Amino acid sequence: MIRSALLALIAGTSAAPTAAEVLLSWPVDCDNGRTCFIEDYVDATPGPGMSDFMCGLKSRDEHSGTDIALLSDAQRLAGVDVLAAAPGRIAALRDGVEDRRMDNAEDISGIECGNAVRLDHGDGLQTLYCHLAKGSLTVAEGDSVERGQALGRIGLSGQTNYPHLHFTVLRDGESIDPFDYEAAGICGATAPTLWEDAPPYVETGLFTAGFSNQVPEFSEVQNGDARVDSLAADTALVLYAHMFHAERGDVLHLEAKGPDRSVFDHSILVKTDDAQAFRAFGRRAPEEGWPSGDYTGTARLMRGETVIAVRHAYVSVR
């Protein structure tokens, strides 16, 4: 996805670093597991198919970076800084791409990364920060920056429909996995990490969340047939979430909001360990029907006080 569109931003690197030369710090001003979470890792499987570095499900085919997601769009609007993961020099940047939830019909060829900064740390190692907010960049090409210095803010630019930082680590112009940078595409290997303090890995997550007009069958959730983009005003409003490797004691929060009201905010206790499972909750339409407008759904999977995963869903009532 993003890998092929970054040639202009990732060109011009040289010799390979070692972990002793550059270690990376957390690149977002947020608390992992509290106010943000890791949604996707680098795809560790070359060719078709996908796997994260632990042979888990938290990646996408040919995904070239680590996605650090906010919990809500309200956080983005309030402003969350993207931070330099290590000292370096600004090698390239781009600004001016609009912040908006991506329309699948939109042609964004060449700007999939959105507003971005590429930081050169020397000895062939670079880091790339994608999907920054338009007009938020605080650096200029050629600037020297310190570890932890703000580069801009998380936005909604480029190929994205939720606020997150796509963070890519490059060695000699090729993306590598900072969690397992010598694994050579073999998931589950125990190669060194490039992190100064590596965030913990959790195999549990959410495949998707969506709206439907009834509680769907599991097969419909799995193949995508359950999802609807629009609803009649007199039909039920149901939000579902598809989980993987959820553990007994986890709690799934399902929340739906309309244009002028909260529709529901419901919590479901996970009672068994499951490789895959889905849960749903909804409301019948009021007598006067649902107000016209756009509705948003949020599925948040928690383990105690720790945020494991969040997915968002959207539907229109016309």
Automatic annotation (TrEMBL):
GO terms for molecular function: metalloendopeptidase activity. Keywords: Signal. Pfam families: Peptidase_M23. Residues 78-178 form the M23ase beta-sheet core domain. It comes from the Bacteria. InterPro entries: Cell_wall_metabolism_enzyme, Dup_hybrid_motif, M23ase_b-sheet_dom. Residues 1-19 form the signal peptide. This is Peptidase family M23.
